[in-house]
């Protein structure tokens, strides 16, 4: 296969991939609002796993909002249930920092607004005793907390007391430089009988609203449309699992006891996850909550084992809440399998090494764009001999053109004899027409692997390069890199004219190939186009050098 067919196959695969993603977005399954008939078994009053039903009491009283600020997080805790209802990631702005806007608003992951509702809830349930669920009113000692300079950790305590003598202290602990929040639900049994119940933690959110775009380019280049948005969970036995919102009713989650697992809500770049203690056996379940505004909320829940507290005794249930970016090195340390939330799909085997190499290069350069360029150089050095074989084969095919033209005249329309004669000629001259396929086996996995890295790696979100490129994970706003790559492709065509054996239809396709790639790369992340522009330039230089060597060799003799 010659260079032209290699490009053609690559283009067709890229176009097919884009069409598939667009079809999934436009015509794929979407969440359906739960029917009234099913709301009874899946509403917020249903039992979390095997635990007793959540009590309806404890809803009277006035709730307040408590603000907690660290160096990386700003949390808002609602004393109704002691739920975390807002979380702002102070290191991750919504839009890139510019001279006009040096301090843009931070990403809000948890949100108590109706449109983007997402909350981290927790509570206790008991079949025959008083217990505060995620709607009970707690009391807070103060309305704001801030991690002071030099302070490594900060405790926030919320208190709930029942007339029977049962007292619950919900204690959150935040840490400097960390997106992990510790939760301790402490039960002090001041009643006259043993308290039996369960602790639960859950994440509740709505589906993302339909995005609004100002133009077609913005719509097609929005990579967040293609990433997974929904619930995920992990167990050592069944590993990483996704639960799409439209599957909550059709295939509800209900597990047996899971030790060493976690539940989460995931989106592009960011993650909210409840992580039970490593040795605790919890049950995981899902539910759908019907809201008055008709917009369903989706719940993924972890319920702990039964807790028994004798009169006058004390017991605690602990867990961790991760609320932050999907950073692989940090996630792998926090909990087993948590780094799998960086969803590289089937190309994980290629994407993870590429991400690791880019991360190491970024430590040296401090610029992800420069790291991409260095990655191109490393790959080209590694595949130099393989690429040389491709160009040598193409050059030999070009030099054989007079002899192939002579065979066409000799055999006319007898295609079978023509093919046999060409195969004999290739064998005699030691030419391998399939040599161009081997670099493709490396090129395509790298292309798609790097695409997933650029789409799902939070380190590359809003990562600037130079000049006009302020975000390597977004499309080039001025199309400079797609145009540059098109020029490189045209130069490659000029250096390597039409190959022998190419039919007229292929020749026409080849003329339009640069324009086809220009259109495709308009919508791709600029970091990916940067990779291919630099890679194309390296291959162009290598091709020019190989042709100079080939032209210095004696020309092939024409067939008699």
From TrEMBL:
Residues 66-357 form the Membrane insertase YidC N-terminal domain. Keywords: Cell membrane, Chaperone, Membrane, Protein transport, Transmembrane, Transmembrane helix, Transport. It is a multi-pass membrane protein. Residues 368-548 form the Membrane insertase YidC/Oxa/ALB C-terminal domain. Its main location: membrane. It is found in: Cell inner membrane; Cell membrane. InterPro entries: Membr_insert_YidC (IPR019998), Membr_insert_YidC_N (IPR028053), YidC/ALB3/OXA1/COX18 (IPR001708), YidC/Oxa/ALB_C (IPR028055), YidC_ALB_C (IPR047196), YidC_periplasmic_sf (IPR038221). Residues 30-56 are annotated as: Disordered. CDD domains: 5TM_YidC_Alb3, EcYidC-like_peri. The chain crosses the membrane at residues 431-454, 474-491, 512-534. It comes from the Bacteria. Residues 33-56 have a biased composition (Low complexity). The keyword Repeat does not apply. Belongs to the OXA1/ALB3/YidC family. Type 1 subfamily. Interacts with the Sec translocase complex via SecD. Specifically interacts with transmembrane segments of nascent integral membrane proteins during membrane integration. HAMAP family: YidC_type1. NCBIfam families: PRK01318.1-3 (NF002352), yidC_nterm (TIGR03593), yidC_oxa1_cterm (TIGR03592). Required for the insertion and/or proper folding and/or complex formation of integral membrane proteins into the membrane. Involved in integration of membrane proteins that insert both dependently and independently of the Sec translocase complex, as well as at least some lipoproteins. Aids folding of multispanning membrane proteins. This is Membrane protein insertase YidC. It comes from Dyella humi. The lineage of its organism: Bacteria, Pseudomonadati, Pseudomonadota, Gammaproteobacteria, Lysobacterales.
